[in-house]
Design a protein that fits this description.
The protein has 403 residues and is α+β, with helices and mostly antiparallel strands. Helices cover 60% and strands 17% of the residues.
Length: 403
């Protein structure tokens, strides 16, 4: 038994040695043959690894921006179009809720003196929003409960608005007209003050005003969008269930009146999209592997034709068909594997450079490496099978006629 195993190992080693010898004897042709495999594996490794890094960075960013928050969007029903101030107060009083921030948006014409701009994004917020975003203001005072209660005509403006309407002038205490109504500028917003998930989803506003004032300008009294900030230690899924149950009662248990979005739901959707993108790009990149496999088949068929005499002599000396087939199959396998290993190395280098250029984390994907090497080896076996079988079935008499 041991003698038989040893004999098989010696034979396999001889096949490997002869295959490597033939590959090295035709360096240029061998290089051009494995080039397709190398490019395909490089593309697969680089794309999968880079997307994995981007996915990790996005997940970290989403978690940090949306930790402890829920986003609620209200479509309403025939009897109740949105959330009233009493409804929001009731939700705020829940044990799972630390506070909430309404979001009332409008697009306005903004003017001062002889200058004006249209389609300016204006968002209505509350005092809690300013308290939870410590880096929101660079100068001025924050919005307070009095501004909300009195629907005060005060505003907080972005650097772009300062540049457009107050160039060379201190904006604090000056008036800015929003849809023809004068608003007192009470503070200046920072460039990146709001890093919340709600801001990322809806976009940053150029001007902030009290949400009660925004409702008045929109001729409505109902809030249709708000962000819930959870109390410390509260699970988002549990809190979402509690809020949904409370809001179901507010809307008389009618269906499809609102949507509560958790961070896990957003992350799941993002991961699903990235997985689909990864599969699509990997599939496109795999076309190069198929092209490389065709190149290997072409080279091996040429090699069989060139080595007809060698095959005939081996058969005449007693070589069995499966031994001939194994030798050519091993050569095809090694060609593809060399291209695969080189592609893995080049792909990792390329993906590392891409991650550094994009500012994302580099994640070494063992699965991608296994896929690249395994796929390249499989291509070598599949596309080398036909040439190897042709060599093994060659008639020794016909092979020796060219001697």
């Amino acid at each position: 038994m041991l003698k038989s195993i040893r004999k098989s190992l010696v034979m396999i080693w001889e096949c490997v040695r002869m295959s490597l010898s033939n590959i090295l004897a035709n360096r240029v042709r061998s290089f051009l043959t494995v080039l397709g495999i190398l490019i395909g594996v490089t593309a697969v490794i680089a794309l999968i690894t880079t997307i994995s890094g981007v996915s990790g960075s996005l997940s970290s960013s989403f978690s940090s921006m949306g930790a402890g928050t829920l986003m609620v969007s209200v479509t309403g029903s025939d009897l109740k179009s949105g959330m009233t101030a009493d409804d929001l107060t009731e939700l705020t009083a829940m044990d799972e809720v630390d506070g909430l921030t309404p979001s009332v948006s409008l697009s306005a014409r903004v003017s001062r003196g002889g200058s004006y701009e249209t389609n300016i994004s204006v968002s209505g917020k509350n005092a809690y929003y300013f308290r939870t975003n410590e880096n929101l203001l660079t100068r001025g005072r924050a919005l307070n409960a009095v501004d909300e209660a009195q629907t005060s005509f005060v505003c907080w403006i972005s650097p772009d608005m300062v540049e457009s309407f107050f160039y060379g002038v201190d904006p604090i205490g000056e008036s800015l007209y929003i849809n023809g109504v004068p608003f007192l500028v009470s503070g200046l917003l920072s460039e990146d003050g709001d890093a919340s998930m709600a801001s990322l989803m809806s976009g940053s506003a150029d001007i902030l005003i009290p949400y009660t004032t925004a409702l008045k300008m929109n001729n409505t009294s109902d809030v249709t969008s708000f962000t819930v900030y959870l109390a410390d230690g509260v699970d988002s899924e549990t809190a979402a269930d509690s809020i949904e149950a409370r809001m179901d009662a507010m809307f008389s248990f009618e269906e499809d009146c609102f949507t509560v979005t958790t961070m896990s739901g957003i992350e799941d959707t993002m991961e699903e999209m990235l997985s689909m993108m990864t599969a699509l790009l990997a599939g496109i990149a795999s076309i190069a592997l198929v092209v490389g496999g065709i190149g290997i088949m072409n080279m091996m068929l040429t090699s069989v034709t060139e080595r007809t005499t060698e095959i005939g002599l081996k058969k005449a000396l007693g070589a069995l068909p499966w031994q001939i087939q194994l030798q050519f199959l091993m050569e095809s396998f090694l060609l593809s594997l060399i291209g695969g290993l080189a592609g893995v190395a080049l792909g990792l280098i390329l993906s590392f450079a891409m991650c550094k250029a994009m500012g994302t984390q580099f994640v070494l994907s063992v699965g991608a490496i296994a896929l690249g090497v395994g796929f390249s080896a499989a291509v070598g076996v599949l596309f080398g099978w036909a040439p190897a079988r042709k060599a093994s079935r060659l008639n020794p008499i016909d092979a020796l006629r060219s001697v």
